Amino acid sequence: MNKYINARTIRTHIIMTFGLLLTAIGWTAFLIPAKITGGGITGVSTLIFYASGFPLGVSYLIINAVLIVFAVKILGRSFGVKTIFSVVVLSVLFSLLQQFITKPIINDDFLSTVLGGILGGAGVGIVFSQGGSTGGTDIIAMIINKYRDISPGRIILYLDVFIIASSYLVFQSIEKIVYGYVAMGITSYTIDLLFTGSKQSVQIFIFSKKFDEIADRIGKEVGRGVTIIDGKGWYSGEQTKVLLVMVRKPEASQIFRIIKELDHDAFMSVNNVMGVYGKGFERIRT
Question: How far apart are CA 248 and CA 203, in angstroms?
């Protein structure tokens, strides 16, 4: 059991490190050389770097270290070990990559914004998918939320808008502010797409006289459980069996294929669901 847990932990941290590398590349190769400020503590560190020349990785580590200390005192010792891991690794990656990437890779601000936003969002999305966090404004949001009835998402949005707007003090450019907001939007969309896209689930109700054959093949070929519900047609007055299946969205096409092969007259209802928790799906996180 311990070997399994250790292997899973190592795998999780390797995946998180890959995500953090993508994030670091997005910032150091595209956003920072183009003088585009995104949100979060990375955005603050970018402004400090351009205003004073102070290394990005160092300021990012210092600011997050202070926030983590407050978080541990206010939110408790259970506050994420994965967050500390992410902050340290990302700080190191920022410092290393800035030594190798000294010139802009491309000279198009808009393209830099798009690529930086996509890579940054993809990296953070991967970290989130492993139950981690990159700290920063997330910590501030959690602390404020403990004492004020304001949603963390709204707090983070306000902070990011303020941080990007503050770039005017350093760059004296409205254009850079606009690009910063574009990068923020692309990053948010990419995080959502990567983090939730592969985990979206659908709920399928199947009405068919060949329910037993369909259920058997779903179990064998798709590897999903099937719940059989007793039903009665109001119009026909006939007793019927209804199959209830919960599957990942990409698996739905396999269900459709099975039903098409077995019963052309089957009736189905397919619904997107917000979340599915339990064996074979998501774990409930506290």
Answer: 9
Cα–Cα dist 60/91, whole Å: 6
For residue 159, give Cα distances in angstroms to 31, 36, 144, 184: 19, 16, 12, 12
Higher pLDDT, 147 or 48: 48
Query: What SS3 string covers 249-285?
Result: HHHHHHHHHHHHHHCCCCEEEEEEECCCECCCCECCC
The token duo for 11 is 């795998």
- The pLDDT of residue 78 is 54
Q: How many CB atoms lie within 10 A of CB 24?
A: 27
Instruction: Report domain extents, the chain.
Output: 2-197, 201-273
Three-state SS for 157?
helix
Q: Which residue has the tokens 């259970």?
A: 78
Confidence of residue 153 (pLDDT cuts 50, 70, 90): low
Say if residues 201 and 281 touch (Cβ distance below 8 Å): yes
* 125-145 mean pLDDT: 78
Residue whose structure tokens are 């941290």: 13
Residue 14 phi, psi (nearest 5): -65, -45
Residue corresponding to tokens 């700080």: 91
Give CA–CA dist 229/149, Å, rounded.
42
DSSP 7-66: HHHHHHHHHHHHHHHHHHHIIIIIITTTT---SHHHHHHHHHHHHH---HHHHHHHHHHH
Distance CA 95, CA 258 (A): 53
CATH fold label, 201-273:
Alpha-Beta Plaits (3.30.70)
**Mean pLDDT lowest among 49-53, 144-148, 210-214:** 144-148
Which uninterrupted H or E stretch holds 226?
Answer: strand 226-232
